[in-house]
Design goal:
The protein has 15 helices and 2 strands. The protein has about 350 residues and is mainly alpha-helical.
């Protein structure tokens, strides 16, 4: 074929380069986040990043490991960003710090550092926060155009660091439940699904604002696929299973179960499909194993969203499937070429 010459040997991509590309792929979603909800998320990202680097350095110092190589691999920053994007942008500063510190020190370094942790550190941090501080994890900003009183950037800063809102402004006037949480709550109150989806917070496919943020993460995921930094197996299996499962329930009972695209563009589905489940350390190594792993996560995400006690099941689905990874790898490893099977 013209234009291609041997030898076909390429320089391996370093961990720091991979992590940097993943961080860059998150930027479209973050930019849309800022557009619809204001710059508070940038404060959470900054706090999480600083905390992650400080705790990473501290843990490395305790283990007498060199700081520079590990701090420059960008893995701590990626954990920080994924956690910050998973919690409300108006979360108090200490909540971001506690969650990030736990994710880096316990979920990562307790198991020996990068490459040894069996669970996704960002999702462990999220799970700890939502179980320990559930009320703080429900104060999501209302998208522009829907808030009774929009918060300026100084107002957002004042609330994050001091817990204070402008005089006469109530917290419930500037925050709201997520589209998934609102859907579940209203269905439990026996509100008709068609009436729920006509509420102002819902857009064409899911929640106003959140559906566009999910689209931004989808674009970032396509970038990672194009760069061949992730394979198609996990995103396709996760989104496919989530689509098929939600579609079956929707067909069986359309008055209580929303259409599949709602689940694709709500919550952390797109973030999970391309950035969380694809973590090479905590996901299977074989193509068939990746399909099984992601399909299980898709099924669990739907079940937790629809029948569980949490509004979004992405974190817990990820952690439950992380437990299964060693078994999945053992089942799906190809046979060693030339090795004879033992006769019974």
């Amino acid at each position: 074929m013209s234009g291609f010459f041997s030898p076909f040997i390429t320089k391996p991509v370093s961990v720091s380069q991979i992590m940097l590309h993943v961080l860059l792929a998150l930027i479209p979603g973050i930019a849309i986040y800022v557009w619809f909800y204001g710059p508070a998320i940038l404060i959470s990202l900054t706090l999480a990043s600083i905390t992650a680097l400080v705790i990473e350095a501290l843990m490395l110092k305790i283990q007498n490991k060199p700081l520079a190589p590990y701090l420059k691999d960008n893995s701590a920053l990626l954990t920080a960003w994924l956690l910050a994007l998973s919690i409300p942008p108006l979360a108090p500063w200490w909540l971001v710090v506690v969650g990030t510190a736990f994710a880096i020190s316990i979920s990562k370094h307790l198991y020996g550092g990068l490459g040894n942790n069996p669970f996704n550190p960002a999702m462990i941090g999220y799970a700890v926060l939502i179980i320990s501080f559930p009320s703080h994890m429900t104060h999501w900003l209302t998208p522009h155009g829907l808030a009774e009183i929009p918060l300026s950037f100084p107002d957002q800063l004042n609330y994050i660091f001091h817990g204070m809102l402008p005089d006469g402004v109530r917290l419930d006037a500037v925050t709201m439940a997520t589209p998934l949480d609102t859907l579940k709550t209203q269905l439990h109150l026996n509100t008709q699904l068609k009436d729920i989806l006509e509420m102002p917070i819902y857009g064409r496919m899911a929640g106003i604002g959140s559906e566009w943020v999910a689209t931004g993460f989808l674009l970032g995921g396509i970038y990672l696929l194009a760069k061949r930094l992730i394979s198609w197996h996990i995103p396709a299996a996760f989104l496919g299973t989530l689509f098929i499962t939600s579609g079956l329930f929707h067909l069986l009972d359309p008055s209580h179960h929303v259409a599949p695209l709602f689940h694709w563009f709500s919550g952390a589905a797109m973030l999970g499909a391309f950035f969380i489940l694809t973590d090479p350390v905590t996901s299977p190594t074989t193509p068939r194993g990746k399909l099984i792993f992601a399909a299980g996560a898709g099924l669990l995400t739907y079940l937790i969203r629809s029948f569980g006690g949490f509004p979004d099941g992405m974190a817990f689905a990820t952690l439950l499937m992380n437990i299964c990874v060693p078994l999945i790898d053992a089942w799906t490893q190809p046979k060693v070429f030339g090795k004879k099977e033992k006769q019974p």
